[in-house]
Amino acid sequence: MKRMFASAIAIAILAGCGLVENVQCQKASAASNGNNGSLKVSLPTKSGSVRFAIIGDTGSGTDKQQQVADMLVRYKEVFPFEFVLMMGDNLYGGDSAKDYDKKFEHVYKVLLDGKLKFYATLGNHDDANQRMYDHFNMNGKEYYSFKKGNAAFFSLNSNYMDKKQVDWLEDELSKSNAEWKICFFHHPPYSSGVKHGPDEQLREVVEPIFIKHGVDVVFSGHEHFYERLKPQKGISYFISGAGGKLRAGGVGRSPLSAKSFDEDMSFMLIEIIDDKMYFEVISRTGKTVDSGTIMNQHKKNAVGAAESATKHHSF
Fold this sequence. Notes:
23% of the residues lie in helices and 25% in strands. The protein has six helices and 16 strands. The strands form three sheets. A seven-stranded mixed β-sheet has the order 2-16-15-14-3-4-5, covered by helices on one side. The chain has a seven-stranded mixed β-sheet with strand order 6-7-9-10-12-11-13, covered by helices on one side. Strands 1-8 form a two-stranded parallel sheet. The radius of gyration is 19 Å and the shape is globular. 44% of the residues are buried.
């Protein structure tokens, strides 16, 4: 699919900062064997929190995609997430009614029957008409936003980042007063992938806008593995593109990579509580391969500035 981009608007580049704390990589399996044990998560599962899952590059219709979906269903019993973000490449190889059934509706039937909402973004293997599909909740739009609790989500079409979409993104982000601003789209601005790597052209366009308007976290797919990048210019970047396909050994060496997993397929679980975002990454077989906490730096910086101003003006 042909890619289109608008020119980036030059703005001052803000200094990066460390955002992720208490990150642990657990090698032991978190899944139970058979029906004798129970699943466990490190996430708080606090009442009133914003809880969701992330899957990417799912639309293969294979047995292993089904196994990831089955594990997702099992984890929902112990971590009742409220919706799912899809990172694109939702259907490989066709967009017929049979494709939607085989590669999505049948695979996620248990979750769909439970009225769980999926929010999709378009990948390079997706037809734009997917925006009309009810279960993807795009409401006929190639890019859109929605809010859950104290978090605002912005889904972009990274296939065609034209001026119209850039203007929309600027406007939506500037109007949002959400404590957390989260963008998700298919192509990763940062990546250690051997096959694709970072989409530098896309990054040139969107990153200055993200910095300008206080985006906190960015989720992408495209690379068929999991990767957590070191925070870049105050923003945390994740790749979750192994929900339906795996590129084993696909992660190369990079000083920007904080954690990666390319040995099996995977998905993410996220929980937002006030100024903290907790994350856990689960493999197809139920292993926790990454987990940690992200602090909302924009809120922290704002509080710090307010306290400083109060002290300065006190008598």
